[in-house]
Design brief:
This protein is of the alpha+beta class. It has five helices and seven strands; from the N terminus they run βαααβββαβαββ. A seven-stranded mixed sheet has the order 1-2-3-4-5-7-6, sandwiched between helices.
């Protein structure tokens, strides 16, 4: 059976499936490197249904879903929040999340999501696209480097009560 991959903006009525995908992809990516208590604390605070619904209706956020044969298998979130002062390419928009279910990784789905983010940013006049990525997530760091991102700083990212270092990366657009 041929795989039909579609990238489109996520609708508000898809909050339940987005919550499920958010939680599952975060667990896939980070559960081996974190305690169960810290993972549960992070997920309960940041990837619960109420929070995801509120993020979907917030006009500062843009979500794209990756659908294979109609089923969501990944997503990304752009955020129009004010970037950190270290961002030198302005205006800039944040790629806050980009996750694909493990079963569907390496199938160009992440690339499709990234292309949608870049297209949105360019169309809306942004000159930079920046993100934070865990310093030990080498697979993601290499993915971002292939897309032209460069490291420009770091910050602390809390997973439960564990302070972890995220590196900041930015890509010039246009």
């Amino acid at each position: 059976m041929e795989m039909l991959i579609e990238i489109k903006q996520i609708r508000e009525d898809e909050a339940d499936i987005l919550t499920s995908i958010s939680r599952n992809t975060f667990i896939d990516a980070f559960s081996e490197s974190n305690t169960e208590a810290n993972m549960n604390a992070y997920l309960d605070e940041n990837m619960n249904n109420v929070k995801i619904k509120n993020e979907l209706i917030d006009k500062l956020n843009i979500f794209y879903g990756a659908y294979v044969n109609g089923a969501m298998v990944g997503y990304c979130k752009l955020s129009k929040n004010i970037p950190p002062r270290e961002v030198s390419i302005l205006p800039a928009i944040e790629l806050e999340r980009l996750y694909v279910l493990r079963l569907h990784q390496n199938g160009k789905i992440g690339a499709g999501l990234m292309r949608s983010c870049i297209d949105y940013a360019v169309t809306h006049g942004y000159r930079g696209l920046w993100l934070g990525v865990w310093e030990h997530n080498n697979k993601a760091i290499q993915f971002y480097k292939r897309w032209g991102y460069e490291i420009f700083g770091s910050h602390i990212f809390m997973v439960g009560n564990d302070a972890q270092t995220d590196i900041w990366m930015i890509r010039k657009l246009g």
